Amino acid sequence: MQNIAPKKRATPRRTLAQVSVRKPSATFEGLWPSDGEIFDRTCTLCPRLAKFLAQARIEEPEYYNAPVAPFGDPQARLVIIGLAAGFHGANASGRPFTGDHAGVLLYRTLHQYGFASQPVSIARDDGLRLIDCRITNSVKCVPPENKPLPVEIQTCNRYLKAETRTFKPGTVLLALGSIGHNALLRALGLKPTLFKFGHAAEHALPTGQVLIDSYHCSRYNTQTRRLTAAMFEAVFARARELIDAGERRIADRGS
Ligand code: SF4
User: Fold this and answer.
1) Which residues line ligand 1 (CB under 6 A)?
2) What percent of the chain has pLDDT over 90?
3) Counting CB atoms within 10 angstroms of each CB, which of 78, 87, 99, 199 has the fewest?
4) What residue owns the CA closest to ligand 1's atom 4?
């Protein structure tokens, strides 16, 4: 059988002391239920990814190894759109950005701006709650070498499209990377060519939401300093500002 395991890294899997994935618990609290519309835990529509997961179940039986559900508040006014599950992160823990390098900066920043109950995301049963925030991925399954194929992004777009029906006017959509940006626009029925991706770019969408872009908080982007903590924080500060301004408008109308 062809070995489809990801390339082994030269460095240990988890270099930060606080990042260690524990065996998942039986509960899925805070994760979207497998309703078959926004999320389907049994989905195998992408043959390459289904095969990759089947192999992963053999090689890493302690890992979650299935499509990863969106995490957080179903009514959230901040929705973060990432790329795909990471092999040793979301694919291991069963929760987006939990247990991998990208999640370290993301959850620390979410906590800093009041969108998470704690700054560290260790495992699916670590008690972390998102506050007025949800995290979803453009591709729910882990792709080999973190690179989904265009057809896989397109196939998984049906779930993101269903999720967009939960977005209210004024919801702030924060795309991590250009793949998330384009997948989200497609899910909303908008042409990606009309909304150019750029770090900290802000787009008032005709569907009533605001889209803010950020470079992805991946290990590569943070280690090369393409994305610094300050750049990332500025994006979340803007998201917080927009959400608070919307809240003030609603309060003013009610007084
Ligand atoms: S990536 Fe999405 S569409 Fe493809 S198999 Fe996984 S859940 Fe299904």
Assistant:
1) 43-46, 49-50, 67, 139-141, 152, 155-156
2) 84
3) 199
4) 46
Do the domain assignments include residue 8?
Answer: no
Show the domain range for 208.
30-254
Ligand 1 centroid, distance to 66 Cα (angstroms): 9
CA of 142 to the centre of ligand 1 (A): 9
Query: Which tens digits make up the pLDDT trace of 132-141?
Result: 999 999 999 9
Mean pLDDT of the 234-242 span = 98
DSSP-derived 3-state class of residue 197: coil
pTM of the model: 0.87
Q: How many domains does the chain have?
A: 1
CATH number for the domain spanning 89: value is: 3.40.470.10
CB 21 within 8 A of CB 92: yes
Residue 65 CA from chain centroid, whole number: 16
Question: What are the structure tokens assigned to 50, written together?
Answer: 């289904």
Identify any residues that bridge with 72 across adjacent strands, giving them in sequence order: 134
- β-sheet bridge partners, residue 210: 172, 204
Task: Give the whole-angstrom CA distance, residue 175 versus residue 147.
Answer: 17
